[in-house]
Design a protein that fits this description.
29% helix, 631 residues, 21 helices
Length: 631
Amino acid sequence: MHSGFSISTLTSAVRARKGAFVVGFGLSVGLIAMGFVGEPEEQVQIQVPTTLNDFRMPGTQPNSLTHEIVGSDTCASCHGFYDEAHDIFGTWSASMMGQSMRDPLFLAALTIANQDAAFAGDLCLRCHTPGGWLEGRSTPTDGSALLDIDLQGVSCSVCHRMADPEYQPGVSPAVDLDILNTLGADAPTPDQSHSGAFVIDPLDRRRGPYDEGPDFFYHEWEQSPFHQSSSLCKTCHDVSNPVFTAQPDGTYVLNELDAQHPTNNVYDTFPVERTYSEWLMSDFAKGPVAIGDRYETALPAVSSCQDCHMPETDLQACRFDENRPNYSTHSFSGANNWVLNAIRNLNPNDFVTGLQPELVAQSIERAEEMLRDASDMELSMVGNKLNVRIINQTGHKLPTGYPEGRRMWINVQFFDNTNTLIAEHGAYDQETALLTVDDTKVYETKLGPDEAVSALTGVPAGPNFHFVLSNVRYKDNRIPPRGFTNANFQSIQAEPVAYTYDDGVYWDDTQYAVPKGAARADVRVYYQTTSKEYIEFLRDKNITDSRGQEVYDQWVITGKSPIVEMDVGTLTFPTSCPPDITGDGLLNFFDISAFLTAFGNQDPIADFTNDGLFNFFDISAFLLAFGDGCP
């Protein structure tokens, strides 16, 4: 265990802190020490007494800006309401970026995070409402002090005032050097620029990739190549828990409390998300990769995050401007297809949220189309087994991002010659939202605490959804991107866990035994944002507020996180006995009856001459085959 941290120090810290979990703490620690605690589920959970210092990151600090962060509605007068499907303000409003602080799923997870570790919500809020965080309204860390302007989430002003923490002479805006020098010890290195460790221009100088020219007068501006670089996305799409420090043996231990992480290096902290780093270790980071007609982009090959999530097109960036051939759309399409509807239900004033019904519908369709573009599927036979190959066509793992509740799986249905379902793998019940997981491949990440953290908190060791307490990656079988090597992905804390991939592989094969009598297999790949297990966890573990119940209710109302069909295909199996219509391996009266029924319905299985017609010749061919019997 990390020096300076022990049961006694935790006991003292907890007793000094008022909170919901203090009651019973001394008894729990005593029982743990004496070995009298029962099964893990019987333990009393104890809040880790972390402080804001434990979650402190380098970069611009709260209450240090000269000019406040302006609301995105300020930008709408020029960048909105002129092209419903494509203008910057409208598409941003109907994205998860624009709604990141109204997201009820996030809010419910925020409550659990604060329950598990005091002040943990500060780490979450700095990316979900960076404007509110920068202006000192992230405490209390449940978001209760935030203003309406802070609910605009990842607003225009935040991203467009962001400076590259790695100053590049002749490339970065010259003013950025002074900004970094002023930060001094708080200036993050590139390896520290994660989990919301951003550098924000203290003045309202808005950055973008274009040279606006000397006559531009609408607002102060700086030309910034950083805004077309994936490095900008790294700021919030490599996410770590800084209360844990990596050890030489690959484990993670809890730091001494009330202290900033000793290095804040991204790869010294516990990995929650590594989307940027996955891209960094892919072929896409080395240069454009041709992946066909995907992601609404006109580019023949893609490289950066923006190429796929902000595809370039020939449209207006401003109502007072001509079309720009390389205008980057601000739809920020991802994979979430239900939360926007939940937000509208909970915030019915569309004028305030910007969530007009047509914009929400367009955003959800873009998300589902992105999922369909994200993979390809190939079906084949390997010996006597069906082989399902899923090919990753993204620049990161598939799926990627926040791990809790997200999953992708393979559904296989075997049918006989009468189109009767005879076996299924990965069955999903739309009514109950239950997925049968023990007979198919489910692609997911599972995090959880180890025995040491369990002993200190009462949360059972092993995979669970207490992500703030997680310090072990128990499973990660997600499909890697092009350019994957085990060594590179281990270096970014993203190697496969409880699974293996060979170097260079960006696909995965799963084999299924073909049941007797199967004539074909219908195969689908599904994705779901929020599993039943996760949403029930958020509901049932919340002892603080109503957020868990609220998001559960919306999950139900909006279709229980509707599954998305990413790929679909059919493989027909050759049969050695065509007259065995029932597929039971026997030739008898039931096959004759099944043939006559199929013949009357003009079912293709009754076209024994394969001429597309149903006549006497088919009956004759069937009877001859029936008379010959089966081998």
